[in-house]
Amino acid sequence: MCPILNVAYDWVPPFKLHHLYISDCKVGPGFWIMLQSQTELVDVILSNTFISDSIPKEWLSKISSQVKYLDLSYNNFSGRLPLELKFPNLQYINLGHNQLDGPLPLWPTTAFSLDLQSNLFSGPIPSNLDQLMPKLQFLEVSENHLNGTIPLSICNMKDMWVLSLRHNQLFGEFPQQWSLWSGISIIDVSHNNLSGNISSSMGMPSSLETFK
């Protein structure tokens, strides 16, 4: 049985957390309200905690300057995320398996991993993704409502290791410059509306293990 963590609505904690790790534990609404008073967080894991709410812009803004690890996956967060924030120290982002909508929240950051799968995000993949997140190695945005084409600039992200875009509404051709990915291991673009041929003239990445 899943444990339950309840906190009084009016509790004002006499501390400022830097690290929070809670997973597979049901937290009460008072805990989520309390957490928003914690503005010095560096590592946040709040996964599968049965939260049904929005993610406040004010809280994200306050932790954005120092947070490195942000995992709010497998909850029931909804609504749109702010697009204008910057996360200079963020390395890992996992907001997957929620009910978040609107455009992809691709914040300027040096993060190596971005997981936004199984949400309600829509619109195109930004053409300047390579400038917003130049260090990205793991991109997982499957099972959303993304449309448009796969931007050519995605091939400029030479550290890319895993690219998963499956179950969206993307169309057009797959970028022909994919040989620039010297370390790519997995590409999954299945269940989209892509067309055209994969050109062999640019060469297939020797590191590629799975392509579907």
Automatic annotation (TrEMBL):
Gene3D superfamilies: Ribonuclease Inhibitor. The keyword Methyltransferase does not apply. InterPro entries: Leu-rich_rpt, LRR_dom_sf, RLP23-like. It holds the Pfam family LRR_1. It is a single-pass type I membrane protein. Keywords: Glycoprotein, Leucine-rich repeat, Membrane, Receptor, Repeat, Signal, Transmembrane, Transmembrane helix. It is found in: Membrane. Its main location: membrane. GO terms for cellular component: membrane. This is Probably inactive leucine-rich repeat receptor-like protein kinase At2g25790. It comes from Prunus avium.
